[in-house]
Amino acid sequence: MPPEQPRKGLAARLGALAEPGYRRFWIGSLAAVGGIQLVQVGNGWLVIKELGGSGTALGLVGAATAIPTIIINLFGGVFADRLDRKKILLATSAVAALLLAAQAVLDVTNTVRLWHVVAIAVGLGLVNGFDWPTRNAFFPQLIGRKHMASAVTLNTVMWQGTRIVAPAIGGIAIAFTGTATVFFMSAIGFTAMTLILLTLSAPPVPPRPKRSIAKDLGEGFSYIWRTPLFRVLIPFTYANMFFGLQYITLMPLFADRFDVDSTRFGWMLSMMGIGAVAGTVAANRFQSGKWLGAAMLGGTFVFTLFLMGFAWSPAYGISLPLIFCASFFNAIFLVNSMTAMQLSVPDGLRGRVMGMHGITFSLIPLGGLMGGAIADALDVRWAVFASAVVLSCIAAAVFLTQRHIRGLDGRRLRADRPA
Predict the structure, then answer these.
(1) pLDDT digits (tens, 9 = 90+) for 91-110
(2) Which of 141, 182, 235, 328 could bond 275 through an S-S bridge, CB–CB 3.0 to 4.6 Å?
């Protein structure tokens, strides 16, 4: 049977928005993800500029979210495959809104301390552990398979687009009203997600035999190990996040290095988002093409070269185009690898497998913890440069040794259906 011919251009990228349920879910997710981006801006400025924290303290806040997220993510995937996914998302969104509202109140009353920020970060990490695998298992219930690649692209545009807008808004809000406003806005974003979820309905997932959580986890691990695509791409994505994207956590230290105010710091973060959105749009050219695998690995390698340049950039103005290019090429890997996995995983395993993949995003702040320690001992430039060198070596090794990843064909992925 010949592979389905994908639609071209804007219609192919936005096709999933034709589904009313997914459209509402995407809008609600946009509000929640914007809140997540604002929290990162607010915490970075609060810890470094207002609480007098160091690079290690900044990394500690990130790790406080990442570690519980990693631990819970595995079990979150099991629950996403067992329970009503909409109810799980309602609970996680409501709890996140309450935690962020509490942080905003502490900040606006000038009673916030570093341990408050860390404790709330731990709470958000526990919430994220259930939220991420459930979110990635839920949205495919709202669309047909023909819209899967479109939905993955739209989800990525949502994440990367908020990285453009949210830091700029956050930087301006901090400059004029302080960090508390940023945390209130984040709480409002998750409240909007909660209200939109109440309006959604999705077809139920077919019931599965009742087994122990350990057996369900084992089934997920076994599937990943037996499937070459997941066995390589998930650990490689871990490396990409830990070594490559740790610089996101360390950006306040670069703002200190360039001696910029909160508004210009916001524009530094926005430049990452602009590059990532441009890369997401460019990635669409490879999703249905013969060179999907080569584009993913090549994009990662080029990303590391620009990241090395950014690490040693001598001036604020020079750093902006470098960080734009780095984000552009990394987005090509992230979008296409996520599309390949979502098209390949069976729905009955989606929550567990994507939960294990979801650990990737928690490795960014853990990499930041390591990078923050290196920055305190040596310099933030050495922290980012050394990590970029490590990732470039990993990307080269995967390209040379993993022919099935290097030769991944997007046309065949669209045509095949997971068992």
Answers:
(1) 999 999 999 999 999 988 88
(2) 328
